[in-house]
Amino acid sequence: MFLIVGYVIILASSLGTYALHGNLLALWVPTEYVAIVGLTIGYFVGGNDIKIIKATVAAIPGVLKGTKYDKAYYVDTLAMLFEILAKVRKEGLMSIEGDIENPEASPIFSKYPNLLHDHHVIEFTTDYLRMMVGGNLNTVEIESLMDVELETHHHEAAEPGHVIAKLAGAVPAFGIVVAVMGVVNVMGSVGSPPAVLGKMIGGALVGTFLGILISYGFVEPMGNLLEQKAKEGGKVYQMIKMVLLASMSGYAPQVAIEFGRKTLDSHVRPGFIELEDELKARRGK
């Protein structure tokens, strides 16, 4: 939503101020728009393999949506982990075998449909719970394995943002290419009247204008948002990691989820009493 607002402000600031003293029709040079868009698409397709192209195209619509990683999401995740660990502490590790093998049918996981739809989070959680059920865990080795998995996940999640950032850096150069082609065209018409040459030179400069505006006004903000969303999406895995490692180290469920709560950013982190009251309320249901 804010991306659209930003785009509107950028257009109003650039085209709006230009319209006060110039003719907007002078900026309408369709062939230059087509050339810059074509060069940009060609760079994107030629510089990335099909996996990255698909991931980037799939990620772009997400920048127009609000985040799902709000305080309620993290409270749900902590509450789910607390219920699982409390069951383990009360009934033993084998008691959760059915829950982790079929989360959709689990009495615990099914309470949290929003989390069930996040397959990566559920898979990450159940994989390490399955290791806990298997027993004989070395916490240091499990933490190392978690770190490797999270590094891989974060790298994949960050790729679309990196691709768009590189694209933003290339677009101004494409604007220069288009402008140079326009200047070459002008050089072939040096015998034309000054008014005609002036219009042709102005049209050539539109290429430079478009390249810079599209790059820094449209493409780069999108790349920044993709990078921010990728970073934001990794926080829940860090939280789960800390909770499970604390549990593996022998801490009680109440203490283990506190390890996870402390990893959260301040604007989405529930307070200690707030989380405790929420857990009590859910146990009473």
Question: Could you describe the 3D structure shown?
Answer:
By secondary structure, the protein is mainly alpha-helical. It has one domain (27-285). 75% of the residues lie in helices and 0% in strands. The protein has 12 helices and no strands. The chain has helices at 2-19, 30-46, 50-59, 71-91, 97-101, 113-116, 119-134, 139-187, 194-233, 235-248, 253-261, 272-283. Helix 4 packs parallel to helix 10. The two termini are 37 Å apart.
Specify Rg, calculated over alpha carbons. 27 Å
In terms of DSSP E residues, the strand content is under 5%
Helix content: over 70%
H-E string? HHHHHHHHHHHH
Number of separate helices? 12
User: How many individual β-strands?
Assistant: 0
**How many domains comprise the coordinates?**
1
The computed structural class is: mainly alpha
Compute the average pLDDT. Answer: 88
Shape: elongated
Let me know the largest β-sheet: none
Low-confidence stretches: none
**Cα distance spanning the termini:** 37 Å
